[in-house]
Amino acid sequence: MKEYASPSRKVFLVFNYLLITLITITCVLPLIHILAVSFSSSGYVDSGLVTLWPKGFTLASYRFVIKNEKFWRAFGITLLRIMVGVPFNTVLAILMAYPMSKDAEQFPARRVYICFFLFTMIFNGGLVPTFLLVKGLGLLDSVWALVLPHALNIFNAVVLMNFFRGIPKEIEESALLDGAGQSYILIRLYLPLAKPCLATIILFSFMHHWNSWMDGRIYMNFSDNYPLQTYLQTILSASDNILLSAMNSGDLQSIADMLLVNGRNLRASQIFISIIPVLMVYPFLQKYFTTGLVIGSVKG
Amino acid sequence: MSTTSGIPFKRKKTRKNTLEFHIMVWIPLLFLLIFNYGPMFGIVIAFKNYKPGLGIFGSPWVGLQYFQRIFLMDDTMRALRNTLIIALMKVIANLAFPVCFALLLNEVRVRTYKRVVQTITYLPYFLSWVVLSGILIDLLSPDGGMVNQFLGFLGIEPIYFLGDKNVFRKTLMVTDVWKNFGYNTIVYLAALTGVDPTLYEAAAVDGAGRWKQTIHITLPGIATFVALMTILGIGQILNAGFDQVFNLYNVSVYETGDIIDTLVYRLGIQQQQYSFSTAVGLFKSIVSLILISLSNFLANRYAGYRVF
Lengths: 300, 308
Hints:
The complex is a heterodimer of chains A (300) and B (308). Helices cover 73% and strands 0% of the residues of chain A. Chain A has 300 residues and is mostly helical. In chain A, helix 8 runs antiparallel to helix 11. Chain B is mainly α. The chains are: A mainly alpha (300), B mainly alpha (308). At the A-B interface, helix 1, helix 4, helix 5, helix 6 and helix 8 of A face helix 1, helix 4, helix 5, helix 6 and helix 8 of B.
């Protein structure tokens, strides 16, 4: 149905598009600015002349970062925790979601288990007791301290559980009549049907592990063991001198680069490198995030 | 098939089925028992003067001494006050702005434009506060940061967004909205599409313009949902956003910006005041538990909302 566009409506639409575009641009501007700073030389950066376009274009800060062992070691640790943690999260979410998605008549104990699971969403032991537990288990300074404590993400599991609930019961019933066991039904029938939802929770799990910094901070005693975000967090509050000397490798190119580099563009380039994976993955998988979000929050 | 021979068959099948379920559940449950319920026993530390050398069992009991200290110390009361104020500001802002933006975006008919806007605005949600604080510290710097430069063009003095305790809370609120409004807009847009379109048509026939339609149809239509989000937000009011505050704060803004979680972290991890930190954390957890249970109960009563 075509709407009658009165003059005031047209004016409104123009303002609307302008306003929305302006607001949307503010979401990208900071990233563009950081990108510009990372490619600029220190003189311009310090005088505040860099806004959205690099001035004194140089790759010096990126060269510094690439030679910085600490950065890449932290990057590697984050990759490691993703490779270990995401499968753990996914498997545990599936194992919880599937039985919980059954009715009470099919699985009476469900009510009891659900209470156990949901209670943890509103109450936990707190920072210090959890730390002491992880320490007591001897997990400090290992990747397991980053993977095991939140291996079961209740929110993801609930999203998946609701999805399983939406799958027609007939599929399960006819498989049961044919003599199938529940694990067969889960693996061969339900999981293939749940692929979009699984993709969503895998992505959420990936983002959690990528962005997580506090567990690295408390469970790792040595900065060598920090995951990426924790490492970034330490350099953000470091002074310029500490930053430069920590990253100094002494070869000729570095010495030349040192003139062009300061705390600000070094941080900018490390920040930018750390968000490249997110930026690359995000546009393609954005639809999974959106549908998962809608499944999880808007109810009926 | 006669019923008498059918019943024993069915009972055997059911028992076998639930066994598989039980086995499936116990694997994640084990993790939960160790890492979520296990630390709950550690809560006794809040009632003891915990010394690592003596262990949990060897440390002496002190009863409610640390809980008394919560109400006597300025730091804790300050943190409590800041937490409530900041969280309230965020609940309101994270409701008002995304709802308005969703309403505006809803007026856009061009679908590709809508999708592009959603994609771009959803992006900051996926960046960690570590990364964002790195960007913001640079952007908001009083000494050459882009925002203050822009203000300079307008003739305004540089503002210490992250260093001035009178401005800090507003900075927290605005940056939090900026990070999350893409996410929230998607949720509210979904709610908007739930409003019956025939109502709009009927109103148009009656001669109502778009503005009147918005006030009389759209807003009442999403009122329940907005109320639901508000109630749930109030339930979270003691979580003022540790990640954000920790990465953006510094000593000069503690007075208005220090929240319960950052205090717990400083006391527990940095100052190793394990017992006191646990007591503060426990206090927060219990109040949170009450608030969340209450808010979920209200949400269920008035909006039919259930977690499961």
